[in-house]
Each structure stands twice: as structure tokens, then as C-alpha cells.
Amino acid sequence: MYDSSYRITKILFFPIVDAIAPVVACPKPYTVVLKTLTLNITLHGAKAHDNIGIKSIEYLPLKIDNSTQYVPPTTLLVSRHSVGHEYLIAVTAADLEGNEAECIYTISIEGKIIKENLFRNNSQLFVRFFLF
Asked: Can you list the domains of the chain with their CATH numbers?
């Protein structure tokens, strides 16, 4: 507000609340070929943008089994038992105001069958692995 001399007499503050969620885009589904007994897969590739800024992008496998281990924040450890499995990965993007958006993508694990061969030598038990 101004008085007759055009001096500011009051300053009004209006809180601005951001209610617009960010936009997040997941990577396309992809396949990883397992050539060793275990493999660390780094979860990455999601893109997010927002009108006030992105605070975080988080990756989380939706379902894992005994053949897989999730190591936060972005590593999926798969083993020879993961061959033939598909994993759904949820990506959550949050903006500076706490609004969130989510997308989901798939990682498939392929590879040759790995055969275990147990044998004994001089009273010791050994395990030999074969990649086919």
C-alpha cells in the first residue's frame, strides 16, 4: 500500500505453495546378460524435472527373491540364480516442496546356465562352477 506521497506503508506476504508434482521418466526396459557368478547392477537412467527443482530421485526394487540383494541407494546384486528373472524397479522423484511422482521399469536377467560340480579331493570338498 502507498500513502499520498507514494511511500510504502504496508508490505503483504503471501505464502506460495507448490502443488505441482515433478515429472519423472524411467529408462526403457533392458536386459542384463550375466557372464559371471554375481553381478552388481547400478540403477540409473531416470530423468526428472519440476517447476521449483528436484530434491531427490530414489530407486527401489519392488520384488526381489533369494537370488538378489538390494544395496541402497542404487545397486542391485544378482547371482547365477537370477537368470530368467525380471525385476520391477520403482523410481520416485521428489521436488523441494515434497511432491512426488513415480514410474516403474523392468530389468531382465539372461545368461548361460551355470552348473555346479561338487567333488572331493584329499578329504576336502570343492565346488566347481561351469558356464555354458
From this structure: 23-131 (2.60.40.10)
For residue 113, what are the contacts with CB-CB under 8 A and spacing of at least 6? Answer: 83, 132
pTM check: above 0.85? no
Q: Rounded CA gap, 107 and 31, in Å?
A: 6
pLDDT in tens, 39-76: 999 999 999 999 999 999 999 998 777 778 888 888 99
**What is the spatial distance between Cα 30 and Cα 19, in angstroms, rounded to a whole number?**
33
> Residue 61: CB partners within 8 Å, gap ≥ 6?
68, 70, 76, 87, 88, 89, 90
The position carrying cell 504496508 is 10
Query: How many CB atoms neighbour CB 2 within 10 A?
Result: 9
The residue among 62, 53, 49, 60 whose CA lies nearest residue 91 is 60
Alpha carbon of 35 to those of 29, 75, 111, 120, 123: distances in Å? Answer: 20, 18, 6, 26, 31
CA distances from 41 to 25, 68, 88, 107, 124 (A): 19, 11, 13, 10, 34
